[in-house]
Amino acid sequence: MERKVSRIHLASGPNIIHFLQVSWEKTLGSGFVITLTDGQSAWTGTVSELEISQEADDMAMEKEKYVDELRKALVLGAGPADTYKFNFSKESCHFSFEKNLKDVSFRLGSFNLQKVASPAEVIRELICDCLDTVAENQAKNEHLQKENERLLRNWNDVQGRFEKCVRAREALENDLYQRFILVLNEKKAKIRSLHKLLNEVQELEKNTESERETTSCPQMSADREAIYDESTDEESEKLPDPSVLPPATLRKDDSVISSPDITDIAPSRKRRQRIEKNLGTEPKMASKDHHLQEKEN
Predict the structure, then answer these.
(1) Of 7, 42, 150, 257, most Cβ neighbours within 10 A?
(2) How far apart (Å, rounded) are the C-alpha atoms in residues 249 and 242?
(3) Integer angstrom CA distances of residue 222 from 216, 218, 229, 231, 260
(4) In what order do the strands lie in the sheet with 104-112?
(5) pLDDT, greater one: 102 or 88
(6) How far apart are CA 91 and CA 89, in angstroms?
(7) What are phi and psi of 57, to 5 degrees?
(8) How many CB atoms sit inside 10 A of residue 119's CB?
């Protein structure tokens, strides 16, 4: 059975402290036992689940919400001290409590209690329950304190490992950054060298193109002169070669050439040279013919 003890002040005697004990088996909504004492006398009563349901119906509230209000008023003591107002009549043994909302108050419940014949036993049980609750709470506090110490040690351990991880991460980032800087500098150097090589190749191509242009101009002029000279050679090739002509034709040409009345009209320089050579050999042939004619005479 679960028990809760709270300290309350009655509206009829606010200077007198009363202790209220509420105990239940399963849940507060399934019924509970209420005990009230002022240290000298004691009153007790049992509230059934049916009575709780009737009170909820009278309040026009849902049962769960009404049970929650009972828990706040009788067990938890939630809210300010003047939120709940308790009334008890020793003559009628009627216990009631109300909830104050600003200037409005409404009744939460009322129960009939019975006076205990031996209040000392009730008070003794109440004190024992209080001591047990204090011991239980103290044990819980010690357990929670040990648990907090353990969690604090774990936290310090985790924090230490976390700091080591942070330092390791920073060292790794610095190392990676240094390596990245080295690789980046190498790539920049390669890029600069490639740019330099590209500029040199482009400059070399420009120089070769300019040299080709300068060499193509004299070659074109030489080709033009060669074409002009070939025109005279073609004209000379049109003339028949004396060595190929038949003897009769050669003798006829020789007679024509030896004639003093024929003038040279060849436009070609080579033709003039050929004619001059033929003229140089003609007197010899004429002198031989003259000598033969003298012998015949």
Answers:
(1) 42
(2) 9
(3) 10, 6, 11, 14, 41
(4) 84-89, 94-101, 104-112
(5) 88
(6) 5
(7) -65, -40
(8) 18
The type of residue at 57 is D
Report the candidate in 207, 227, 205 with the shortest Cα–Cα distance to residue 215: 207
Please check whether residue 64 is in contact with residue 52, taking contact to mean a CB–CB distance below 8 angstroms: no
Q: Is 246 a residue whose pLDDT tops 60? A: no
CB 4 within 8 Å of CB 21 = yes
> 222 falls in which pLDDT band (50, 70, 90)?
low
Cα–Cα dist 241/244, whole Å: 5
Least confident of 6-20, 155-169, 209-223: 209-223
Better-scored residue on pLDDT, 13 or 49:
49
Cα Rg, the chain, nearest whole Å: 71
